[in-house]
């Protein structure tokens, strides 16, 4: 925790993560009393007190989602799918998903008993012993060679899952496979927060070295009840923006991002401007990323703007195009002109056809 005293002598702790704050907000605003599940997202700065390292800063930025209200395996898979899709949308290809299950309270209790027995026989120093008494699972994440060696034969929680927990985890794995999401089982996974239960997961990127995590999360059944709310299940994840940027740089994936705009309209003359504004709205209503040139920049200036905006296509509209109802879309990468009827539906169809052809190629 990043804790310090302010000038008034008050102890201040800066928020280390987003889930607890989101849960308190859900409780205070009675969102848990309405339609379930409650699905929310958050984004913002968070803080850690540990020594800064590459990609691990004392102030870092995170985005995350939470799904509150049900403990179905299907919603676990959906939440993981959202994170997986987010990474893929950035062009990342080399990240890996690791999953495990921390089971229910009965499973964790059975494992804790055996793990405590195992640890009691180890010659741990006072500080490590204190940490193990608070949460013995943390020792699986200890990077000291002597602790890694000592924990090599420690009992693993996944081997103590009861029938219900095993069944739930099998269903989660099947859902992920059905969604074509690749994963591996990491039975020694330890997340940085102690409230996780059941399904737990982490996305890692092998090109980032020892600190390879780029995001992760899990189920936290019981947290809402601890914070004074209803006893509702929940699952979510957080993605570290700084870490993801490093992964994108390592793969050079940001240079492969789709064009900023599908289309840039270059109107020539006042009549064309008025026509273009209406076309702009119609195209945006159809989901096309489109903008237009303003300020009487003319053909040359308008095409320069199309290039600077990294548009895939440019569309010049003047009096002749309006009169004929026909215009040419210029492919800004290839320099080719493609004739189109000057209607939103025709332009949408043409852009879709070109994008589909590009993807197949």
Question: What does this protein structure show overall?
Answer:
By secondary structure, this protein is α+β, with helices and mostly antiparallel strands. The chain folds into 2 domains: 2-104 and 162-254, BirA Bifunctional Protein, domain 2, CATH 3.30.930; 258-360, Rossmann fold (3-Layer(aba) Sandwich). The protein has 12 helices and 14 strands. The chain has helices spanning 19-28, 73-89, 105-120, 126-134, 145-150, 163-178, 223-226, 241-251, 270-285, 298-308, 319-324, 344-360, and strands spanning 2-5, 11-14, 38-47, 59-68, 96-101, 184-185, 197-204, 213-219, 234-240, 261-267, 290-292, 311-317, 326-331, 337-341. The strands form 3 sheets. The protein has a 7-stranded mixed sheet with strand order 3-4-9-8-7-5-6, with helices on both faces. α2 (73-89) runs parallel beside α6 (163-178) and α9 crosses α12. The longest helix has 17 residues, at 73-89. It starts with a strand and ends with a helix.
Would you kindly provide a brief summary of this structure?
The chain folds into two domains: 2-104 and 162-254, 2-Layer Sandwich (BirA Bifunctional Protein, domain 2), CATH 3.30.930.10; 258-360, Rossmann fold (3-Layer(aba) Sandwich), CATH 3.40.50.800. The chain has twelve helices and 14 strands. The chain has helices spanning 19-28, 73-89, 105-120, 126-134, 145-150, 163-178, 223-226, 241-251, 270-285, 298-308, 319-324, 344-360; strands spanning 2-5, 11-14, 38-47, 59-68, 96-101, 184-185, 197-204, 213-219, 234-240, 261-267, 290-292, 311-317, 326-331, 337-341.
């Amino acid at each position: 925790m990043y804790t310090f005293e302010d000038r008034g002598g008050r102890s201040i702790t800066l928020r280390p993560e987003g889930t607890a704050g989101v849960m308190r907000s859900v409780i205070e605003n009675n969102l848990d009393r309405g339609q379930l599940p409650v699905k929310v997202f958050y984004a913002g700065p968070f803080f850690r007190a540990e020594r800064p390292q590459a990609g691990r800063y004392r102030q870092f930025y995170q985005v995350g989602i939470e799904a509150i209200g049900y403990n179905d395996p299907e919603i676990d898979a959906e939440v993981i799918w959202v994170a997986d899709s987010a990474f893929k949308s950035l062009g990342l290809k080399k990240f890996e998903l690791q999953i495990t299950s921390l089971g229910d309270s009965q499973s964790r209790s059975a494992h804790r008993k055996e793990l405590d027995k195992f640890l009691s026989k180890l010659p741990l120093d006072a500080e490590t012993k204190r940490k193990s008494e608070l949460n013995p699972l943390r020792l699986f994440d200890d990077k000291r060679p002597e602790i890694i060696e000592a924990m090599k034969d420690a009992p693993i929680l996944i081997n103590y899952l009861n029938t219900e927990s095993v069944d739930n985890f099998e269903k989660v794995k099947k859902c992920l496979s059905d969604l074509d999401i690749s994963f591996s089982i990491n039975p020694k996974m330890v997340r940085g927060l102690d409230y996780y239960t059941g399904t737990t997961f982490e996305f890692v990127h092998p090109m980032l070295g020892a600190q390879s995590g780029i995001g992760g999360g899990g189920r936290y059944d019981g947290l809402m009840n601890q914070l004074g709310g209803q006893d509702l299940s929940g699952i979510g994840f957080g993605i570290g923006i700084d870490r993801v940027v490093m992964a994108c740089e390592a793969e050079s994936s940001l240079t492969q991002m789709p064009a900023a705009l599908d289309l840039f309209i270059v109107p020539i003359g006042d009549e064309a401007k008025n026509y273009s504004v209406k076309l702009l709205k119609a195209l945006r209503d159809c989901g096309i990323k489109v903008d237009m040139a303003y300020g009487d920049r003319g053909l040359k200036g308008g095409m320069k703007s199309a290039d600077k905006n990294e548009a895939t296509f440019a569309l010049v509209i003047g009096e002749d195009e309006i009169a004929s109802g026909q215009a040419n879309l210029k492919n800004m990468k290839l320099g080719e002109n493609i004739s189109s009827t000057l209607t939103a539906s025709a332009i949408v169809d043409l852009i879709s056809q070109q994008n589909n052809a590009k993807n197949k190629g």
